[in-house]
Write a structure and sequence with these properties.
Length: about 450
């Protein structure tokens, strides 16, 4: 627990709470859209297509938001994205009976605030500034657990609100949460500034195509598991006569995933990120395929959902750790949002395909999607582990890249939370020096 206390001291408890609550709208939106559209359309395929439009917008918009944040700073871009996203979510509710709903869901997805990727970039900066690189895996374990807990809480909140009020209420609450928490997250003191490379002729680092070609499909697979599972659970709930319970059933997934995500921090350090990725992908096949073999009872489905959650969290965390290990530091926002776009694209594809299968074969047909996606994930990990390992082991050091990367993203110097003096690595600095852009340390 000492390492988790380090995270609290580095960022503050208020930041952790704000960052978690700011994630909820993105976790609520896909199921909220499916639930809302399903009330006005007799076909789950139509509802799945609407959720796919949201996911497609997010898959395209995520990298755009990340690249703009690298150039203009997380504060400005996060503020704009949150405002547009809140308006678009409200627009989905107001335009659900018209063709404008297609535009609204796409815009809502495109402008999704990139809370998870941006938070991971912030941890990398904060902990590097304090000389605590050793705590970064713990930070990513926490982020993975926070993601999974939001995936549990968001759908559960959709289920409760759908039962307690009109079908559009979950999306309106998501819009309010975006305004009240995504905007404060964007403006928080932990937000790193824009990455600027001094000198007119200096070039930014190139994004490594090889790792992206592996990690984006890897995230696509886990997204398809989530999207297919959400649609399958919705089909099961409707067939049982309780359509509003879909969010509550899906929330069971987060119980196992949250526990597994937090426990990942205690894995031995000698188990490197590539090894963790391979083993977690093997475990993911169990979670993806278990939905196909469980009996058609509520109790069995809930047990299966807990298994899916327990196997998905380590996979997400290991993939996120690999992304930081192989990506360029001066384009961290772009790289992380590109990788994360695979998840939202996968949710869109999974929901759309599972919707058609659910119309034809019921919930069991929809659950074919997570099973197939998990098999693809383990095949990809088995085939690509050596490539990722080579990239991580040969990533240039700060000394080697001083000329190629004249500027490295660092955070503004924060007060020492314990009052015990300057942060690690800050001795000898001029207190009046602009700390936004620092040359790589030797």
């Amino acid at each position: 627990m000492a390492t988790y206390r380090t995270l609290v001291r580095a960022a503050s408890p208020g930041f952790l709470l704000t960052a978690f609550l700011a994630r909820l709208p993105a976790a609520m939106a896909p199921l909220g859209i499916i639930t809302l559209v399903a009330t006005v359309s007799p076909s789950l395929a139509t509802a799945g297509a609407a959720a796919a439009g949201y996911g497609a917008g997010a898959a395209i918009g995520g990298p755009v938001v990340g690249a703009l944040a690298d150039r203009l700073g997380q504060r400005l871009i996060g503020l704009i994205a949150a405002a547009v996203d809140a308006v678009a979510l409200a627009g989905v509710v107001l335009g659900v009976h018209t063709a404008l709903v297609a535009v609204a869901v796409t815009v809502a997805g495109f402008a999704t605030p990139q809370i998870g990727p941006f938070a991971r970039v912030r941890w990398a900066v904060l902990l590097r500034d304090r000389g605590r690189h050793d705590v970064l895996p713990t930070a990513f374990s926490y982020e993975g657990a926070a993601d999974e807990l939001s995936f549990m809480t968001g759908p559960a909140l959709v289920g409760v609100l759908s039962v307690a009020g009109p079908p559009g209420l979950p999306l309106l609450v998501a819009a309010a949460l975006t305004l009240f928490f995504a905007i404060p997250f964007a403006l928080h003191r932990t937000a790193p500034p824009a990455v600027r490379v001094p000198g007119a002729g200096a070039a930014r680092s190139r994004l490594p195509i090889g790792p992206l070609a592996i990690l984006i499909p890897a995230m696509l697979a886990i997204g398809m598991i989530f999207g297919g599972t959400q649609t399958g659970v919705t089909a099961f709930a409707e067939a049982s006569g309780h359509p509003g319970s879909a969010g509550l059933i899906y929330a069971v997934l987060g119980i196992g995933s949250t526990i597994a995500g937090l426990a990942t921090a205690w894995l031995p350090a000698r188990m490197g990120p590539v090894t963790r990725y391979r083993w977690s992908s093997a475990a993911l096949t169990v979670g993806g395929c278990v939905l196909l073999v469980v009996p058609g009872s509520l109790g069995a489905l809930c047990v299966a959902m807990a298994v899916v959650g327990a196997t998905s969290a380590p996979y997400l965390i290991s993939a996120g750790t690999l992304a930081i290990a192989v990506g360029p530091r001066d384009r961290a926002g772009s790289f992380m949002t590109l990788v994360a776009s695979g998840v939202v694209a996968g949710v869109a594809v999974g929901a759309a395909v599972a919707g058609r299968l659910a119309d034809a074969y019921g919930a069991s047909g929809a659950f074919i999607v997570p099973a197939a996606a998990s098999l693809f994930a383990v095949a990809l990990a088995t085939a690509s582990g050596r490539v990722l390992g080579a990239r991580a082991s040969t990533r240039p050091t700060a000394r080697q890249t001083a000329d190629a990367q004249p500027a490295v993203l660092t955070s503004p110097r924060a007060p020492d939370p314990a009052g015990a003096g300057p942060a690690a690595g800050s001795e000898g600095r001029n207190p009046n020096q602009d700390q936004r852009f620092a040359r790589p340390r030797s």
